[in-house]
Amino acid sequence: MLYEIEEDKFRDECGVFGIYLNKPEKDTDAARTTFYGIYSLQHRGQESAGIAVSDGNRIEHYKGMGLVTQIFKDEHINKLTGNIAIGHVRYSTTGSSSLVNAQPLVFHYLNGMVALAHNGNLINTAELRKRLGTYGSVFQTTTDTEVIANLLARYSQDTMEDALAKCMIDIKGAFALLIMTEDRLVGVRDQWGIRPLCLGVIGDNYVLASESAALDTVGAAFVRDIEPGEIVVIDKNGLRSLRVVNSPGRAHCIFEYIYFARPDSTIDDINVYQARREMGRQLARESNIEADIVIAVPDSGTCAALGFAEESGLPFEEGLMKNRYVGRTFIQPTQQMREMGVKLKLNPNCRVVKGKRVVMVDDSIVRGTTSRKIVEMIREAGATEVHMVVASPPTKYPCYYGIDTSRREELIACTKALEDIRVFIGADSLHYLSMAGLKAAMNNHQPHFCAACFSGQYPVGIESQEV
User: Fold this and answer.
1) Is the pLDDT of residue 138 over 80?
2) Which domains are delineated in the chain?
3) Exposure b/e, 5-37, CB count within 10 A at least 16 = b
4) Could you list the active site residues?
């Protein structure tokens, strides 16, 4: 169970990492590098993790429930020998939380073995499952990733590239895929580029990852982002790029920049840290609050709070201290632990906030329950005023593209007006970043992003979903 402060945030489904080594010094180098790659992507999923490795003849894999460092020990890495590897960290949005749903999925088909790791969510999973079921497909998991695996198997009379081309016509939604055969590493990004995927190199070796920060961790040089609708195939002959579907446009997930991605990542030529800091600056220009200090709800509100302080001329202070050793646990907490959940994660610095008019910056408000408790904590610590500012517009619509969001009626901005939200969380004032401010913070590229959670305008049809 995750403590309540994490439950009141959006969560991304997962992160993927893959590497092709031409001449590894040790036969465990690919697995060990992938371990560090998915470790650096741990923020994208803390439910399960896995690594699959190919030695050119056979694919071996190991996966488990929990954090990367809880699952993998030296004895596991030492058994994963080969020069190609893919890894995955998962938080479930489609499919239940169980080991059978952990990725990569590894399966046999007509042409050999395949391992598959997926970040994103398909919106036509039910339709495809029904269709595949009529053809005799058997499903062992509840994930949409297995639907992709079954489609690949169904088109197995074709080459992997041709099979993928047909899959990309069939599946709808958001996906960044890593596929590994015995001798190839393949990366695929959906036609809109909703979920991120980038390419790096270590010498003459190739790396694919959800975020550029993972490339930095393993010592890879960033080359470029995989384009929307692009397939890259890496084998002993190097890398080749295929375009089998036309990209109707770009709709990169705006929440990668607001919350999901690491601040040190650059996605589609926009640095996450700089984007968040500019969101804070825009928020300061729009809100015009008289206060004494600016504090952040760490860590996701820190970059925006720095920008807010810089633009407003108010000092930035660490008014909330985060306990970074409190996180995911599979031990059911007692009711008393639930009630102290926020205090376990965050604690106010009384000497900093006492007697002060405080501006508190967070990246978003989902249900509002955590914001309410944090505002209460700051008041109890002696703040004379607490002004809540949010570095994104009000979240009014659910996401169907690989982010765990509540049903629409559970989103506080959908059911309450601004003043009612302010009263609910107990703040002296409440300010959200406007859509115009968000667009300005993103260098006026906002039409190239998916911001459906704010606007309800979905780039990929969701006729079968409840809006």
Assistant:
1) no
2) 4-250 (3.60.20.10), 267-455 (3.40.50.2020)
3) bbbbbbbbbbbbbbbbbeebeeebbbbbbbbbb
4) 14
